[in-house]
Fold this protein.
Amino acid sequence: MLENSNGIDRATPGEHAVTRAFPPAASWTSALIAAVIGFGGTVALIVQAMRALGASVEQTGSSITALCLGIAVVGALLSLRLRMPIVLAWSTPGAALLAAGVPGTSWSDAVGAFIISGLMMVLLGAIPALGRLAEKIPASVASGMLAGILLPFCLALFQVANADPLLTGVVVGVFLIARLRLPLYALLLVLVAVAALTLLRGQVSALPDGAVFGVLAPVVPSLSLARVMSIAVPLFLVTLMAQNLPGLVVLRSSGYDPGASPLLIGTGLATAVLAPFGAHAVNLAAITAALCTSDQAHPDRARRWVVGMLYAGCYLLLALFAPLLVRFFLALPHDVIAALAGVSVIPALIGSLETALAQKGEQDAAIVTFLAAGSGLTLFGLGGAFWGLIAGVLAIMAKSLLQRKGATGS
C-alpha cells in the first residue's frame, strides 16, 4: 500500500484487481442505506421544527428541498475536490432547538437566524483564532445545553401515552429491540413500524394541498439581536458540537484528514445561501457517515470518495420528492409526529448526557445548564438554550474564581 500527498493510501496494482473484483453494488448499497437512515429517521423532527416556527406547508417543503440540495451539491463538490467520502446531513439537534420554539418568532426571524448561524460557521473555519476560542467552551456546558434542548422531546414521547399508550409502547419497544439487534437501523425501523400502525388504524388524513416535486420558496429574512442570541448562537453551537466535530472524528478514524477549515466553510456557506429557502443547518454527518467511509463501502480507500458522490445522488432524488414526503408527515396525527420526534433524539440525548457529566469538576455547571435549557424559560425574548449556556459558563467561572481565591488565601 502506497501513500499519496493527501495522506490517503493508494492501492497497489494487486489491490486494484481486488477493487475491480469487488461488487460495485456495495458502494451503492452503503450510500442508499445511509441516505434513507439519515432522511427517514429524523425528517419528522424537521417538519415539526419548521411548523413550530410558523412555516406554511409550502415553506416546510421548501426547507426540506433546500436541505437535501445542500447536502447533495456541497457534499458532491467536497467529495470530488478532496477525493474523500464527505457525507453531509442536516442538524437534528438544531431542529430540536427550533422545534422547542421561542415565543414571538416569525418565519422571517428564523430564516435570518439561520443565515447568521451559517456565517458564524464560515468565520470559524476561516479564522483559526476563532476555532481556538470555540475549543475553550467547556464541553460539559455545551453538552448540557444540548441535553436540555432534547429532553422535552423525549418526555413528549411518554406524554403521548396519556392518550395513546399503544403508540408509545410500539415506538419504545421497537426502538429498544432494534438498538440491541440492529442499532444503526433503529430509527428507520421505528418509522416503518409507526407508519404501519397508523395506516392499519386508518389515522392518516388527506394529504394537505401542495406541490409533489421539489420547490424552493424564498422569504426575505429579518434580523434582531434577540433572535440571534436565542436561535442563531445556540444553533451554531449544537451544530458544531453535535454534528461537525463528531463528523470530523469519523473521517479521521477512517484514515482521512481533510482539515476542518474547508468543511466548516463549505457547510457554513451552504447554510447561509440556502437559509432564505428554509435550510436551518447543513453540516457533517456522523453516524451515517460511518457507512460511507468504511471498508465495506469500498475496499480502496483512495477511491472511496465515489461513495460520497453516490450518497449525494440519493439526496438529489430526495430533494425532487421532498414536498410530497413533507405532506405525508403533515397528514399524520400530532401524537405520531411527537412520538417520532421524541425517539429520533434519544441517541443524541444519551451522548450529550454522557459528555456533560464526564468531567467531575464541571458536573454542577452541566446540570444547571441542562435544567435551564430544558425548562422552557424565556426572558427578554431569549429562550432557555441561551440562558442555560449563560448559567453554565457563569457557574464554571465562579468556581474557578473561588478556587483561585482559596488557593491565594491559603
The longest strand covers residues 88-90.
